[in-house]
Hints:
Shape: globular
CATH superfamily: NAD(P)-binding Rossmann-like Domain
Domain Ketoreductase: 8-183
CATH architecture: 3-Layer(aba) Sandwich
Number of helices: 7
Pfam family, one: adh_short_C2
Largest sheet: 7 strands, parallel
Radius of gyration: 17 Å
GO molecular function: oxidoreductase activity
Organism: Nostocoides jenkinsii Ben 74
Order of helices and strands: EHEHEHEHEHEHHE
Structural class: alpha/beta
Number of domains: 1
Keywords: Oxidoreductase
Amino acid sequence: MVVTEATACTLVTGGTGVVGQAVVRRLLATGRRVCLTYGANSTVAERLVAEAPGLVAVRADLRSLNIAQLLDKVADRAGPVEALVHAAALVDHTPVASLDAEHFAEVLTVNVTAAFALARELAKRGTLRDVVLLSSIAASIADLGSVAYTTSKGATDALTRALALHLAPVRVNAVAPGIIRSHRTDGDPLFSGPAARIPDAALVAPGAVADVVSYLLDGAPDALSGQVLGVDGGASLRRL
């Protein structure tokens, strides 16, 4: 299939999350056709579509891994997918004593397995050019999430490198944010201490992550693949 700018779209999973929304808005601003997936947050999806009439929103339960069916729906409504941004994630803080195997597997399914399945299926369809996965500094700083979340982000980094090798010439990269500024972190003493010790004394704005995602899709050289780019204000440079 020949994919042109007029027909191709960028698929953003988890497009109603804090980072996902920023990515969707940033890519729309560059002129990209965008399709987002969302889980239960239909209100945010409807608002985003109302703000941007060209935006397509598709409900998806990535835990089910019905990937071919999902991508058929995306293609019918938004066109073939030339770029995938996997921003969907279960952000989990379950203590290890309460974290059973089923929940551990669920976190990895959404955060890692779905990313693999989406990239693999899109590569088979022959339209894919770029993949950007959302990782986290939790991949190397183990106290920023549960065992399941930390494991999933470490696996995301490894998946980025492996997919870049096996899906070439498709470019595959990842963005690893620090603690994201949001309604969850503003005013929360749990995050005020770490923020004060980050070199630029600030949590990461979602827009900063979106800017790097946009760069990877539209500004980065072809030689940039298999890389994990930290966007953390320097947080990973020192112990928080």
